Amino acid sequence: MGEKTRISGRLRMSTGLRAKLVRAMVVTLVVVTGAMVLTVGYMNYRSARATLDTIETQIRQSIARKGQGLATNHALALRGLVADNAFGDVVRLVDRSVQEDEEMLYGLFLGADGRVWTYVPPTALVRDPGTHANFRELGIDPAAAGRLGAEATKRDVAGQEAFEFSASVASDDGTALGRIFYGLSSVPLKRALSSARHEFQRTLLLTLGLLSLLGIAATLLGIVIIRGVAARITRPLAHLTEVTTAIADGRKDQRVSIASDDEIGDLGRAFNQMLQELDDSYKNLEALNRTLEHRVEARTRELGQRNHDMRLVLDNVNQGFLTMSRDGILAVERSAIVSRWLGPSAPSQAFAAYIGKHDPGFAEAFQLGWEVLLEGLLPIELCLDQLPKRLRHDGRELEFSYHAIQEQGIDRRSLHGPAATMRSLLIVVNDITEQVTHARQEADRAELLAMVQGFMTDRSGFLAFFDEVTHLLDSYRDPDGDLITRKRVLHTIKGNAGLAGFRVIADLCHQAEEQLADGGEAQAADTIEALLARWHTLGDTLATLLGERGRDVVEVQVGELAGVIEDLRGAGTPNRITSRLSGWTLEPLERPLGRLARHARSLAQRLGKGEIHVDVDGEGARVDPQRWKGLWSELVHVVRNAVDHGIEAPDERRGTSKPPQARLRLRATTAGDLLIIDIEDDGRGIDWDALRAIAREKGMACASPEELTAVLLAPDVTTRNQVTLTSGRGMGLASVADRVRELGGSIAVKSRAGEGTQFRVSLPLTDASIETEPASASARNIA
Questions:
Q1: Are the C-beta atoms of residues 683 and 756 closer than 8 Å to each other?
Q2: Which residues contact 783 (CB under 8 A, 6 or more apart)?
Q3: Which of 580, 589, 678, 743 has the greatest CB tally within 10 Å of its CB?
Q4: What are the C-alpha distances in Å from 5 to residues 1, 242, 245, 324?
Q5: Tens of pLDDT along 374-419?
Q6: Dihedrals φ, ψ of 138, to 5°?
Q7: Are 779 and 762 contacting, i.e. CB atoms less than 8 angstroms apart?
Q8: Beta-ladder partners of 772
Q9: What angle do CA 743, 481, 626 make, to 5 degrees?
Q10: Pairing of strands 756-764, 674-681
């Protein structure tokens, strides 16, 4: 009974494996044949489509050349006939052209006044042989007869597509005499395409049929071959199955006897070797079982000691360490100091939920960045760098850093690969409250030092700057002010604060600008409160610097005072002496221009533009600093634009055959009752084309130079696509224009590509606002 069972098992194994091999070969041949047929069919179809498209394109081009050439040549031939009013010759020419060419649908000649000279209609539109067809059924506008040049179009005429070509008949002086129209039928095109399509279909069917027959023949031959191969494979495998069954029954002395030299023979020898090694392993396993329990106990004690030591380390370091799994859940193991800083966490709590109790914005930013990391589209290092890093809680400044924990055995170089290689995340938290406080104190001290230096170097200019910023801050808090005005105020304060070395004020303005640009009105309000508090602190320091004398101080140069004394000694006229003495209260124009020059040089160095040559010329004039203080603050924007937008880097200037050192000219002069201020650079100039594109996008007029200048000076207009601390918001020049209009003046802009830009500000003067000194000491050069 057992022998019959083994024989039956061998037969089932042999028959089953052989059938599977045959089926596998049949399926493979059928799949290969089908894929080949589909591939060849698809390629033939693609080729046919491409050929049909080429034929259609060539026929259409041929029709276009024929129709355009016919219309153009007949237009030339009809010039003399139309000029001589040879009506009959025109009729015969058009009629013969249509009748003798079967591709022609219709012909039409319209005089310059839209009157029909001759019309040969399509046969399908002639409803009654005794009546004349109306050319308007074609949809041709009679007004087209007066246009010059050749034209081509398509029309639907009598139920078919027609290609219409027309050309104007013009006299020698270019006057339109009329227009000739010819319509060509699309029937030849469709007939050729239909013939080509039928031919391709016939070829495709023949090819697919031959390939199918070849595939069937290959399949039948493969079945015959595989049956023989399968028989040679299944017989030794049946013997291997018989020996395996015997070993399973407990007869471990059985071995396989396969004499073939192929892979099946190697399998039999390997099987016998495996049986021998199993016998040896059974003996070794019995010995190992005796000591396994002792080893497990020792290993458990070792791991417990390691966990205890690690717990001591985590509880005594002043850094916070947390680990988070890929699904965002915090591990139980962490530094004890984390709980003191951020409080305990619930079991199996997500890190985003844990940190969100203190800062929802931080948690939202972390969750978004973590999801991007898990998508695996970007390098892990880049994603980790984008996660939020600062958290302010309970008077502490906490800094977070993130490190990927990879799977055991994975090369660390795969850190740049997909997120699938990362097992968890290590989060390191540091308390940087002292460092932040120290940095803030250093910035405050530097700002106070800049304030003292500015006050001591240029007292009147600094006081004018301080008063102007105070006025701007008051105007920012005006409840009737709109968003654009607030942005302009912040931008102006930022520029002037940077000029004065007030980095804390400039940074707070920049932060508020960013918040307003992102729609964060509430965050901007908090930043403005911090800005006002800081400015109040600076105001207290300024009051200390002013002392008891306050602002009642007039600065007088020693040489100028000596000149007045000489005048008094010489007993000059009282009016002249009074004029000179009153001039003591005015500010030399060279002083505000010099401040702009210093700002230009400093900004050029910071932006990598190198040393620039600045010409300053005030022609010895002195002006009322109170009347013009707001103007100089706004002109900072023009200087910043000249350095940032206009002046090129030294290497770029060398490439355009310019001197490596850029040149900036600051000049103020009087002409009659006008004060004229010129700010001119030799940079790359204004991109007027880009400005026109922006104007069209915003729906602003830009046809004339004056309109383009108005666009340039409008708010929220900038050719920069990136916002920086220096420029890019489109508010600076708008602020300048507003201030000049308030003073009753005007702005003119001249600029040529590659040569530079000139801003000219013209302002009305009053007798009390200006004093002119001798020209001998008027001009000076600042390099």
A1: yes
A2: 611, 613, 614
A3: 589
A4: 6, 10, 11, 59
A5: 888 888 888 888 888 888 887 788 889 898 887 654 444 444 444 4
A6: -80, -15
A7: no
A8: 621
A9: 30
A10: antiparallel
Q: Which tokens in the block code for residue 165?
A: 């070509």
- By the 10 Å C-beta count (0-12 exposed, 13-18 middle, 19+ buried), 372 is classed as middle
CA atoms within 13 A of residue 747's CA, in its CB half-sphere: 28
**Both tokens assigned to 70:** 């016919």
Largest CA distance in the chain: 152
Q: What single letter denotes the amino acid at residue 311?
A: R
Give dist(CA 324, CA 322) in Å, integer: 7
Answer whether 241's CB lies under 8 Å from 271's CB: no
Kindly give the residue spans of alpha helices, DSSP state H, lying in 317-398: 336-342, 351-356, 360-375, 380-386
pLDDT at 615 (0 to 100): 93
Tokens of 737: 């224009």
Can you give the C-alpha Rg of the chain in angstroms? 46
- pLDDT tens digits, one per residue of 144-160: 878 888 888 888 887 77
Give CA angle at 215 (214, 216), nearest 5°: 95
Q: At what angle do helices 705-712 and 688-698 cross, to 10 degrees?
A: 80
Helices (H), 547-704: 558-569, 574-582, 590-606, 625-641, 650-655, 688-698
- Which range has the worst mean pLDDT, 96-110, 309-323, 557-571? 557-571
Structure tokens at 370: 């973590």
Between helices 2-83 and 87-99, what is the axis angle to 10°?
160
> How far is the CA of 443 from the CAs of 450, 500, 509, 545, 553, in angstroms?
11, 14, 15, 20, 30
Rounded to whole angstroms, how far apart are CA atoms 607 and 640?
Answer: 11
Tokens of 674: 């006008």
Residue 40 phi, psi dihedral angles, 5° rounding:
-65, -40
Region of residue 498 (phi > 0: left; psi between -120 and 50: alpha; otherwise: beta)? alpha
Q: CA–CA separation, 81 vs 73, rounded Å?
A: 13
Q: How far apart are CA 79 and CA 91, in angstroms?
A: 14
Residue 463 tokens read as 């006081």
Cα–Cα distance measured from residue 658 to residue 139, given in angstroms and rounded to the nearest whole number: 61
Evaluate if residue 3 carries a pLDDT over 80: no
The tokens for 585 are: 């209260």
State pTM to two decimals.
0.39
Report the interhelical angle of 483-500 vs 459-476 (nearest 10°).
160
- Going by pLDDT thresholds of 50, 70 and 90, the confidence category of residue 32 is confident
CA–CA distance, 67 with 101 (Å, rounded to integer): 12
Decide the pairing of beta strands 756-764 and 746-752.
antiparallel
Q: What are phi and psi of 586, to 5 degrees?
A: -95, 160
Strand order in the sheet with 116-120: 116-120, 104-111, 176-185, 160-170, 150-157
CA separation (Å) from 649 to 57, 604, 661?
52, 9, 9
137 φψ region: left (φ > 0), alpha (ψ -120 to 50), beta (else): alpha
Residue 346 vs residues 335, 349, 429: alpha-carbon distances, Å = 15, 5, 19
Tell me, what amino acid is at 595?
R
Distances, alpha carbon 409 to alpha carbons 250, 327, 420, 737, in Å: 41, 22, 14, 66
Q: How many CB atoms lie within 10 A of CB 288?
A: 10
CB 732 within 8 A of CB 623: no
Contact 701, 718 (CB under 8 A): no
- In whole angstroms, what is the distance from residue 557 CA to residue 563 CA? 10
Could you tell me if 64 and 152 are in contact, meaning their C-beta atoms sit under 8 angstroms apart?
Answer: yes
Cβ atoms of residues 124 and 159 within 8 Å: yes
CB proximity list for 400: less than 8 A, separation 6 or greater: 387, 388, 389, 390, 391, 427, 428, 429
Half-sphere exposure (Cβ direction) of 319: Cα atoms closer than 13 Å: 11
Instruction: Give, to the nearest 10 degrees, the angle between helix 625-641 and helix 732-742.
Output: 150
